[in-house]
Design goal:
Helices cover 24% and strands 21% of the residues. The chain has 329 residues and is an alpha/beta fold. The longest helix has 16 residues.
């Protein structure tokens, strides 16, 4: 090292196929003695200290808490500015996002304070100068374009190249409809992931792009030509009632002919523009019994209930629990 988180409710199902899949997922989860949380994003209860504790990006906090079932749990990005993951000498500033969470884990390791065990993140390593940290993959995520369900844009054959041209304002009409591209606020995960998917920078955005608008909120689509990036996992989680439903009349668009969601209402891992989500741990602790049982391999707590991962909107991986990469940060 270089320096010293009971299905409460289920929203309206997307057809009989989805209802059947949802029932199977719930049956598996409940049969394994699991309780799937209602829409919420909260720290571990005050005065309680899970055996394995981490700091997590908001996108992955709910699913990691559900998979951990009290054995491991997250402090997300939202809440009081100071968190106390351990009962003594562990009051630390709450990290905001993946990079800040990784840095907080690095500091905890370097100081040998034992305050943190992992970080739940939505990106891979940016610095591979060391092998001090290990990125353990557990799910797939992605961002796609969303349009209003009654918009003439629905059903139009959108391509990644075409979407890039829309967000650089080279294309202003699709099938005779004036398009109005929107973006959430700078620094948001969805905005960053969308620009990365399109392969453009902030500086390359065209003057026609509107916003900022609330992240992963379909109610912002008020005109026929509106188009906005939407997290696929967030859409499914909202549909399943484990996130507050702000989809409105939004529908997710296929890109390059591939739908982001299957006919069963789950993440389509064949969607061409996806990235992985991870648990990051101290590489030296991979052999520890507690860390190994929690995160490593298909039989770990992280991986043995793929129905729960899917219910929270992520693509379940056949190689869940493997170390995808190592690095410094």
């Amino acid at each position: 090292m270089n320096f010293l988180r009971n299905v409460g409710r289920v929203t309206k199902a997307a057809g009989v196929a989805f209802t059947m899949a949802l029932g199977m997922a719930l049956g598996l989860a409940l049969g394994l003695g699991l309780t799937i949380a209602a829409p919420a994003q909260a720290d571990p209860p005050t005065g309680t200290y899970p055996p394995i504790v981490g700091v997590c990006a908001d996108r992955v906090t709910p699913v990691l808490d559900a998979l951990g079932q009290g054995n491991f749990a997250c402090y997300g990005s939202s809440g009081s500015p100071i968190i106390e993951p351990r009962p003594a000498n562990c009051q630390i500033a709450r990290p905001n996002g993946s990079s800040a969470g990784i840095d907080a884990l690095r500091r905890a390791i370097d100081t040998k304070a034992g305050c943190l065990d992992f970080a739940g993140v939505t990106r891979g390593p940016l610095d591979t100068s060391t092998q001090d940290l290990s990125w353990i993959q557990f799910g797939a995520e992605g961002v796609t374009a969303a349009v209003c369900g009654d918009s003439p844009l629905r059903g139009q054959p959108l391509t990644l190249t075409g979407l890039r041209q829309i967000y650089t304002c080279q294309t202003t009409q699709v099938a005779g409809i004036r398009v109005n591209p929107l973006l959430p606020q700078p620094g948001s995960a969805t905005r960053s992931e969308w620009l990365s998917t399109l392969g453009i920078s902030e500086a390359q955005l065209g003057a026609c792009v509107g916003g900022p608008v609330p992240e992963n909120n379909g109610t912002v689509l008020t005109a026929a030509g509106h188009i906005v990036p939407f997290s696929i996992s967030s859409y499914i989680a909202q549909m399943n009632g484990v996130q507050t439903d702000t989809r409105g009349r939004v529908v997710l668009a296929p890109v390059d002919g591939v739908a982001p969601i299957t006919g069963q209402g789950t993440f389509n891992t064949h969607f061409p523009y996806i990235h992985l989500v991870y648990v990051v741990v101290d590489t030296a602790r991979l052999v520890n019994t507690d860390i190994n049982a929690a995160f490593v391999g298909a039989s770990s707590r992280l991986c043995r209930n793929p129905a729960v991962t899917a219910f929270y909107g992520f693509g379940a991986l056949s190689n869940c629990g493997t170390v995808a990469a190592t690095g410094e940060r």
